[in-house]
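Key idea: predict the complex, not the pieces.
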Amino acid sequence: MATEILSGKVHVQTTINGEQVDFLAEPRESLLEVLRDHLGLTGAKEGCNNGNCGACNVVMDGALVNSCCVLSVEAAGASIETIEGVASPEGLHPLQQSFLENAALQCGVCTPGFIVAAKALLEENPNPTEYEVRWWLAGNLCRCTGYDKIVRAVLDAAERMRAEA
Amino acid sequence: MRAIQYAAPSTVEDAVAILAEHGSDARMLAGGTDLIVQVREDARDTGVFVDAKKIPELMELSVNADGSTTLGAAVPCHQLYNDAHFTATYPAVTDAARIIGSTGIQGRASVGGNLCNSGPAGDTIPPLIVHSAVCNIAGPDGERTVAVEDFCTAPGRNVLADGELLVSLTLPKPPAGSGSHYLRFIPRNEMDIAVVGAGAWLQLDGDTITAARTGLGAVAPTPLFVQAAGDALVGMTADEDAFAVAADIARDAATPIDDMRGTIAHRKQLSYVLTQRALRGAKARAQGGSPTNGH
Ligand SMILES: Cc1cc2nc3c(=O)[nH]c(=O)nc-3n(C[C@H](O)[C@H](O)[C@H](O)COP(=O)(O)OP(=O)(O)OC[C@H]3O[C@@H](n4cnc5c(N)ncnc54)[C@H](O)[C@@H]3O)c2cc1C
Ligand code: FES
Ligand code: FES
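Result:
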């Protein structure tokens, strides 16, 4: 059977933070636009819209990605984790707690991206060195903090999470 | 972004049919880290996006009976460097996969996309060249193969005709006693485009070099295979004197331009220094160690 070529409004079925979600979007719209403008998930931010800043980071099928560089229609059948799924009903994620306590944010625009990216790091490497933290987060830009407090917050959260594990 | 159409074929045949029907208006979509950004910024006018990621051959990463590896064109960088066999066997390629953009870019960006974007500074291209990788291409007239060093033809251009796509790369099994390394110079520590990139592969018998290949990026309209540098090394002892001979040849082979990233003189000198360092790293790996200089 020849492959269908999709245009106009496309019905997409996906999974976001464990829940099945349906949306209508044009192929030209990005996953970031869908999250923010169609689904009201405004945690992921648009910083640059070209892959350079990481403010739009989400995890898609287990890989950290910039949602501004994913087409809406590519979400079909995928499993997506956003910042909205990081805290649990019991409370903040250790990374979120650690960002607060270490004053790792000022304006906060970069924070959802940093937390989603740092969570992906700690799931892969629970005991990263400072170098590994800085290398992993190189695609997340912050105009306010100077990064040092962010890096310390991630290392601090890693330590707490290892102690709890 | 302009309005686009999107198709996600599940076979190479279907993809070829769509590409052939829509001609230059259609392009393959792998990780989209070049294509989506270019179309959004009006640097490219593509109306039909043909998703590569539902086609099994383009997502394959497997070792063949003869020990060679098939790398599907759309396999993302993060999958490559998390594959222990691939990383141990083709370290120069994973050196590049680890430095393309950021973790978030590497979650999607593919080696095939890097090659098909055909930028002079594409980081995976010199490593593919030094590993003697071959492109497996499919099109309306069937299949053909092209060596990676013959694939790019000009900045942003390659040998693919309308209707053709890159299915996969075949990387030969490196012989025992060989090693490879790729590194680049950028003014920052990460997230930048190479001013110059250099890759090297060599095979040792004791201290003697029995085969060698080097390649350069960002010093010519296309990534370069510097065949004369590798040839000159054969039969020499793998030491600093030999590496200086090869590095001299690399400097002469570079025909860079002056631009905002660097001057001709700087890029010539970098071609020398980075070839030398890439060879040192390749030697260290051939002897079971690892390179001591960074990325
Ligand atoms: C923030 C940022 C940083 C970057 N940093 C680097 C860097 O450090 N080094 C570097 O080299 N690049 C860099 N890039 C560029 C880009 O990420 C790489 O070139 C990447 O490897 C492209 O792969 P992709 O899978 O995303 O390709 P795509 O964008 O999907 O495709 C790239 C091109 O190849 C074509 N194509 C893809 N697959 C096929 C196929 N199977 N057959 C035929 N044509 C095909 C597409 O049509 C398109 O023209 C960066 C990009 C961004 C946004
Ligand atoms: S908004 Fe996506 S990387 Fe900046
Ligand atoms: S806190 Fe403002 S950009 Fe990071």
